[in-house]
Amino acid sequence: MTFSDAEKAAIVSIWGKISGNVNALGGEALERLFLSFPQTKTYFSHFDLSHGSADLQRHGGKLLSHCILVVLASHFPSEFDATVHAAWDKFIHAVSGVLTSKYR
């Protein structure tokens, strides 16, 4: 999978904003996952699942792609237009593919 120059620029523009807030944004994305799909809490029974917990903050980098996109769109609404959304969706799909192939 290749990325166009515009897609790369779209990813880099948001990435700079994410880099200092990875745990907080990731924790928020996990909270959204648990609200949308409460049954997923069973996979995290050893975690403190309360809002803003240290467990959620530390585990924030391991997220579902839809939750990531929703959190990014809510935090960066003026920059997260359809083009940026599509570039990020493509990027997350590529990363997920690599991770899936490594952990099977």
Automatic annotation (TrEMBL):
Pfam family, any one: Globin
Using the record's annotation, list all stretches that form the Globin domain: 2-104
A single MF term (Gene Ontology): haptoglobin binding
What is one GO cellular-component annotation here?
A: hemoglobin complex
- What Gene Ontology terms for biological process does this UniProt record contain? hydrogen peroxide catabolic process
Could you tell me the keywords of this UniProt record? Heme, Iron, Metal-binding, Oxygen transport, Transport
- Enumerate the PROSITE patterns for this protein: GLOBIN
Q: Which family does it belong to?
A: Belongs to the globin family.
Task: Return the protein name.
Answer: Globin domain-containing protein
